[in-house]
Amino acid sequence: MDAHATLMQEIDAEMLATAGWTGRPHLAPRVRAALLTVRRAAFVPTALRAEAYANHALRIGHGQTISQPFIVALMTELLDPAPDHVMLEVGTGTGYQAAVLGALVRRVYSVEVIPALSAQAATALAHEAVGNVSLRVGDGASGWPEHAPYDGIIVTAAGPTVPPALVTQLRPGGRMVTPLGEPFSDQMLTLIVKDAGGSVSRRDILPVAFVPLVTGEP
């Protein structure tokens, strides 16, 4: 069995083990297929390619990380992605999460505050022929209002509160998955749901550890 398939077995086991918290004992078939299709090795630094399919986060420079594959899988699953959806990602990083979403939805808009990372992601996404992801350098806490509202929003760095602009840009009926908490302290992966009338509810999912959300224009 190759490393990618072994990783998927580990993700399956973690989904089952954490089902009491997440309510999701298994990945949806479409989500699992996307994770098998997207090559994580194409989105990690060259020096770390040997660890591409290890089930842990990897440092990508600039004080940032590419998330643990299980967390990518869980966050994607919680969004309930559908083929006609348009998603917003806050924190492009290397582009791996965007590529996974791109395999599942119609369009992904992704914002990254660090120009060098956005450029690296653009190169990797082009190399992997991911054509439905648009990138922007800017303050992710401001979202990308020109393409709102979004069916789903995923935030890949932690802040103490949910940025109000992101709540505004979430479509009624939409879902947002974000880690909440202070930097390098207790953090909670959180599901935000906006109902058809625009009311917002939140649910704690799982304790996590993410790098801090960097706000402000680059």
Task: Chart the SSEs and their pairings.
Elements: H1 3-17, H2 19-22, H3 29-37, E1 58-61, E2 64-66, H4 69-78, E3 86-90, H5 96-102, E4 107-112, H6 115-127, E5 133-137, E6 150-155, H7 164-169, E7 170-181, E8 187-194, E9 200-208
Parallel strand pairs: 3-4, 3-6, 4-5, 6-7
Antiparallel strand pairs: 1-2, 7-8, 8-9
Helix pairs in contact: 1-4
Task: Kindly describe this structure.
- With 218 residues, the chain is α/β, with parallel strands linked by helices.
- It has a single domain, classed as Vaccinia Virus protein VP39 (Rossmann fold).
- 29% of the residues lie in helices and 27% in strands.
- The chain has 7 helices and 9 strands.
- The strands form 2 sheets. The chain has a 7-stranded mixed beta sheet with strand order 5-4-3-6-7-8-9. Strands 1-2 form a two-stranded antiparallel sheet.
- β1 (58-61) and β2 form a beta hairpin.
- α1 crosses α4.
- The longest helix is centred in the first third of the chain and has 15 residues, at 3-17.
- The protein starts with a helix and ends in a 10-residue tail after the last strand.
